[in-house]
Inverse folding.
C-alpha cells in the first residue's frame, strides 16, 4: 500500500470568489457618500504580512487545527437580534469573499450626545434608510461601535465570515467595514472605549486571516467611482479610513487622526494573544522582516 503526503497549508494571496449573488444592482447613491453597495465582480487582496513558504508548517494528519498566527480574542458582539431590525426588509442571501485583508473605519455622521441604551433605535433608523431609501439590501457596515465601546453586528451573514458589505465603493470585497456611531469632525474627542473596541474588533477580524494590523494590504478596485479606476490595484493600511478608498471626509478628521493609535493597539492585542514568546514585527511583512508581495 502506498502512502501519500498531503500538504495542508493554505496559499495566499487568494482570489475572493463570490459565493452567492443578489438581485440586480440598484443605482441609488448615498447623499453623504459614506458607503456603497458592492458591484458583482470578484475582488482580490494580497496581504503584505503573509508568510513565506519557509514559514509554513504542515501539521500531522489528525492533529488539532492550528490557530491563525495572529489570532486575537473575539470581542463581545451584540447580535442583530439585540437591536431588532425588521429582517423582512433585507436581502435573504448574503454574499461572501474568500477572506478579509483590510478594515475600513467609518463614522455614521449621526449625533454624538446619545445614551448608549438608545443605540438599538439608532441602528434601526440607519438600517431602515439603507434598506429603504438607498436600496442596499441590508445594513451597509459589517459592524458598528458605540461611544461606550459596545460592538454590534451590522450586515447579516455571520460575524466570523468574510461578508461583503456596502461601505467603501470599489473596496467592499475582502474587507470589513466598522462604523463608529457618531460624527468625528475636527476637534471632536473620540471616546477611549470606542477606540479600544474598534482596535479589539479589528485585531480579531484581521487575525482570522493572519493579517498584521500594522501591515499593508493590496486591494483591487471593482468600481471606477472609487479613488481608483476599476481593475486598479492599490496598497492600503490594514486598518484604513473610508477616505482612503473613496472621496469623502469619513471617518472624520478626529477619528482618522486616531487610526495610527488604533493600529498599534490592535497589533498589541494580537501579540498579547500569541504569548510572550511570539516574534514581534521589525518591519513591513513577516515577523522576521520585510518581504515583497507577489502578484
Amino acid at each position: 500500500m502506498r502512502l501519500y503526503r498531503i500538504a495542508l497549508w493554505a496559499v495566499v494571496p487568494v482570489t475572493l470568489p463570490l459565493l452567492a449573488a443578489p438581485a440586480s444592482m440598484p443605482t441609488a447613491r448615498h447623499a453623504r457618500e459614506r458607503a456603497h453597495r458592492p458591484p458583482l465582480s470578484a475582488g482580490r487582496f494580497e496581504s503584505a504580512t503573509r508568510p513565506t513558504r519557509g514559514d509554513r508548517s504542515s501539521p500531522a494528519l489528525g492533529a488539532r487545527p492550528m490557530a491563525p498566527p495572529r489570532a486575537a480574542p473575539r470581542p463581545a458582539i451584540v447580535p442583530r437580534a439585540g437591536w431588532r431590525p425588521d429582517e423582512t426588509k433585507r436581502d435573504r442571501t448574503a454574499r461572501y469573499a474568500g477572506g478579509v485583508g483590510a478594515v475600513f473605519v467609518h463614522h455614521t455622521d449621526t449625533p454624538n450626545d446619545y445614551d448608549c441604551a438608545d443605540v438599538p433605535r439608532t441602528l434601526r433608523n440607519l438600517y431602515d434608510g439603507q434598506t429603504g431609501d438607498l436600496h442596499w439590501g441590508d445594513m451597509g457596515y459589517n459592524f458598528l461601535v458605540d461611544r461606550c465601546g459596545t460592538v454590534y453586528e451590522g450586515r447579516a451573514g455571520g460575524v466570523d465570515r468574510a461578508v461583503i458589505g456596502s461601505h467603501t465603493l470599489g473596496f467592499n470585497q475582502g474587507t470589513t467595514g466598522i462604523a463608529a456611531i457618531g460624527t468625528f469632525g475636527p476637534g471632536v474627542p473620540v471616546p477611549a472605549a470606542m477606540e479600544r473596541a474598534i482596535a479589539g474588533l479589528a485585531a480579531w477580524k484581521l487575525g482570522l486571516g493572519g493579517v498584521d494590523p500594522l501591515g499593508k494590504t493590496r486591494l483591487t478596485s471593482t468600481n471606477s467611482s472609487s479613488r481608483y479606476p476599476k481593475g486598479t490595484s492599490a496598497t492600503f493600511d490594514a486598518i484604513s479610513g473610508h477616505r482612503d478608498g473613496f472621496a469623502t471626509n469619513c471617518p472624520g478628521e478626529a477619528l482618522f487622526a486616531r487610526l495610527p493609535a488604533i493600529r498599534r493597539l490592535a497589533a498589541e492585542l494580537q501579540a498579547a494573544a500569541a504569548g510572550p514568546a511570539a516574534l514581534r514585527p521589525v518591519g513591513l511583512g513577516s515577523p522576521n522582516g520585510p518581504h515583497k508581495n507577489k502578484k
In short: The beta strands are 14-16, 43-47, 77-78, 102-107, 143-145, 151-153, 175-180, 216-220, 233-237, 239-241. Residues 192-207 form the longest helix (16 residues). Residues 8 and 58 are 6 Å apart (CA to CA).
